[in-house]
Amino acid sequence: MMRAAFLHGQLDVRLEQRAAPQIERPDEVIIAVAYTGICGSELHAIEGYALSKRTGDGPTPAPLGHEYAGVVSAVGSAVETIRVGQRVTVAPRGPCHQCDLCRNGGSALCRKTTQRGGSWADFIAAPQKLVHPLPDNAPLAIGAITEPLSASVRILDRAGLRSGMNVCVIGAGPIGLFAAVLAKQGGAANVIVSDLRPARRALARRMGIPVVVDPQADELYTVVMDHTLGRGVEVSIEAVGLEPALSQAIQVVAVGGTVVWGGVAPMGMTVPISPNDMFMREYTLRTSWGGIELFERTIRLLSVIDWSPTVEERFPLEQVAQAVAYARTEAAGKVLLQVAGG
Ligand SMILES: [Zn+2]
Ligand SMILES: [Zn+2]
Fold it and tell me: Residue ranges of the chain with pLDDT lower than 50?
């Protein structure tokens, strides 16, 4: 038996005793979870919001958790690249390699991906192809941020960041903060981060972001223009998924610059865009859907940047309900559940 958290209904998360997963297919790996993150998408599901046609109305009780790292406890007979005792992280889904998107170079956008949730538990099973070894110098708690970090890597890929560019990131939740840090490490000249929450601004400062803005105290547009000779930023990243952040991301972009919307907006939400302004400034507007295909590059970044300040908020799995309640507060950054000793 093992402990596992399930969503029973709106704001109703329960830790239960379930049978631990066993090897059922030859390519399967069983992982003893060490740390597992609470993702914004899970909070939305817990709060009852629908973010896609496939979530929010699924059967309950539903298993929770898709960001995690742990130690391999068993492997199927056909598993060759992963061994028992290895420290690993796992992509929550992977391309099917069979659909028209996958066969046409678009596997990063595969809609037929295998979704594997249920990491808020002592053990989880995953197919070998989604299991990635962690480097020796990457602690398991930091391994658990691989999935959200991969989303930030994808945002910067989509932004086409080049050295010397000015960057603005609106929203310093994990995805936005990671994107800002990657931009700074990737040669951006100026990185400006904006967030309403004081705790997130403080964390952004600790992570070395040079310009951190409270948009209620200072107008973001003015701050950006002050730092860019009145031109705006070449790369403008939105990592909230709500107004006014989505519109601000467009306002602060320079002529010819690129806006990347990386936040997940609620279904049905619309944003006014001026085609004339878009034409005159010829900015590019892109979205970024997540980095499931980028785990190899993302894992290399785990140990070259000190991410430790971003994984300090930890609750034992036993306190999953308190952890969720805390993660929904203004004070929370990235919240991890500690499952095993790590
Ligand atoms: Zn996530
Ligand atoms: Zn596919």
Answer: 55-56, 342
70, 88 Cβ separation under 8 angstroms: yes
CA 196 distance to own-chain centroid: 19
The CATH number given to whatever domain includes residue 222 is 3.40.50.720
Instruction: Give the environment of ion ligand 1: residues with CB less than 5 A.
Output: 39, 67
- The answer to whether the pTM exceeds 0.90 is yes
How many structural domains compose the chain?
A: 2
Q: Tell me, what DSSP letter sits at residue 85? A: T
Per-residue pLDDT of 116-160, as tens digits, reads: 789 999 999 999 999 999 999 999 999 999 999 999 999 999 999
* Ligand found nearest the CA of 334: 1
Q: Which of 178, 167, 183, 226 is nearest to 204 (CA)?
A: 178
Q: How far is the CA of 176 from the centre of ligand 2 (A)?
A: 27
C-alpha 271 to ligand 1 mean position (Å): 24
